[in-house]
Amino acid sequence: MTDAEIIAGLRDLCGYVENGSDTSIQISQDDATKDWVIHIGRSGFPNGNWTWGYSFREACEKAITEFGKDYLR
Q: What is the value of pTM for the model shown?
């Protein structure tokens, strides 16, 4: 994926104000392992979908591939 595709994919996962989506993305890095973690779901709620990667790019690509546009429908 290109950088532009990753940004567009993450934006799609967030949803849009216009459609009433309350989905958010939380991105963090594990202090011990340095793995990147992406949580997709409502802010403040532990349930939702999680993905991780050894690099930021890998974590983003996994999230987009696994939970892309179909996740929002």
A: 0.76
Domain layout of the chain by residue ranges: 3-72
Per-residue pLDDT of the chain (73 residues; tens, 9 = 90+): 899 998 888 888 877 666 666 677 889 999 999 999 998 877 666 677 889 999 999 999 999 998 887 544 4
DSSP3 helix / strand / coil % (the chain, rounded to 5)? 40, 25, 35
Fold category of 3-72 in CATH? Double Stranded RNA Binding Domain (3.30.160)
Separation of alpha carbons 33 and 17, rounded Å: 35
Rounded Cα distance between 20 and 56, Å, is: 28
Q: Are 11 and 40 in contact (CB under 8 A)?
A: no
